[in-house]
Amino acid sequence: MQPFSYQSPRTADEAVAAFGRAGPGASYIAGGTSLYDVMKLDIVRPRHLIDVTGIGGLDRIETGGDRLRFGALVPMSAAAADRVVLRDYPVLAESLWKAASQQLRNMATVGGNLLQRTRCLYFRNGTGNPSAVGSYPCNKRAPGTGCAAIGGLDRGQAVLGQSGSCTAVSPGDWPVALVAMDASVELLGPAGTRSLPIADLYRLPGDTPQLEFTLAPGEMITAITVPKTPAGRRSTYHKIRDRESYAFALASAAVALDMDGDRVRAARIALGGVATKPWRAAAAEAMLAGRQLDADLALAAGRAALAGARAGTHNGFKIELGARTVADALIIAAGRTA
Amino acid sequence: MDSEDTTIDTGVPDAGAHPVSRRSTLGGGAALALLPLAGTEAASAAAPAPLAAAPPDPGQRLLLSTKVNRRDVRVEIDARTSLLDLLRERLGLTGAKKGCDHGQCGACTVHLDGRRVASCLTLAAKTNGREVLTIEGLADGDRLHPMQQAFIDHDALQCGYCTPGQIMAAVALVKEGNATSPARIREYMSGNICRCGAYVGIVAAIEDAAAAMRSGGAA
Fold first, then answer.
1. ipTM beyond 0.90?
2. Exposure check for chain B: N or C terminus, fewer CB within 10 A?
């Protein structure tokens, strides 16, 4: 691992200033469950780490008023266990609950989780074994070197949003649920504060897969806000994995329904595990509006959500699996009481 | 408080003159690190600031002040050090195991301020001013913690490599209030992999120990 300097400022303003002073190679670090991991693999090589977890006041969950507000440093475990979140927004609680082990949820923060790096095996050099570093080309890790996943062992790769440069899946669960719920992130950077719809935080890989987020240099996430909606109670995060628990998604769906009897007034649907960024399924949402929900319509919506998907060699199953995951999520959510 | 009895000071300047190998660490256990405090370091009771941010080669050294198994620890570390490597290689506490070193197996599980974490993905620097509990600090003298006893009673292991992590995770699970059903125990133990497949015994041990911990008020 490349040597780095380490500091732990006490305020967000100090952290931003420290980032500016540190110059090239500066990086914020929160829980470190993603960043320290990829540092050990020599994929990311920061020269200056600015630990933001010592900043006071960013670890509160506020549920009053017309929105939920999560300070960026709330541990994932605390957000997953919050009573209001559990009762009124199961889609959010479940996305966290299914995202990791309790050990990692205690370490990882709800802000840092939004910036988790992909689990693409080629990005991680095949095995996670540091001795394999450099064995595989990867445009995300080393721009311009090519993509070993395309034409390679691509069972885990994306079927939506991929480019000729990169097919890596966006790994998160929480971001998918937040995209479905129209969340925003509050940012602080050298130019001050701004708010950004969370869907706009993520880039498609295109020709520049090394650029995953739209944060400006030195910007940090300070909070996540979720507009309150009664649809939150009829919601779920449905996640299909290779094993029953503690694994990344093969396919997942965040669904929230505004229902009038058995008729859908409005649906929110986002997909994980199948796309290169958290994927809002607007066409599927539109298909459901005003209609009576049954198993056939749910599956039709699932297929609409995966319309335009393109498979590689070994990941074609994700198209059918993704559609059925959405369909099952719709039925689960509709079965919940508002 | 008698600081000479309760403080582990690895005395970095000495480490160069008297190299500590893993073998001697294992042989000596934690006791090897019990050295008299250097006067200047002992005086720094306040949270130490990082050393001057010199050019980062060959790795910034940090003066770390933490507490491990209720004993004060003051040690100079390379900023890259994981909590797991600090415990195993510097403090001689080899209970927490290095399975995957990437947060995937749970063998390195310890408690940080009472919450379970993967020590392999925890920068040691993050433990400054905080409290670490490892498997070595779980028993009350010679009296095993109820979870340790339950793992023995239920044959909840074969090779034992994952066991310290399993037990530390399980103790935390009970305190979190998650030992409410076998299904919930399995879900909340999913971050601890047992390659021998002792899961049936592990779940039974946790159910048993949870009852003992509730009635006995064990920490």
1. yes
2. N
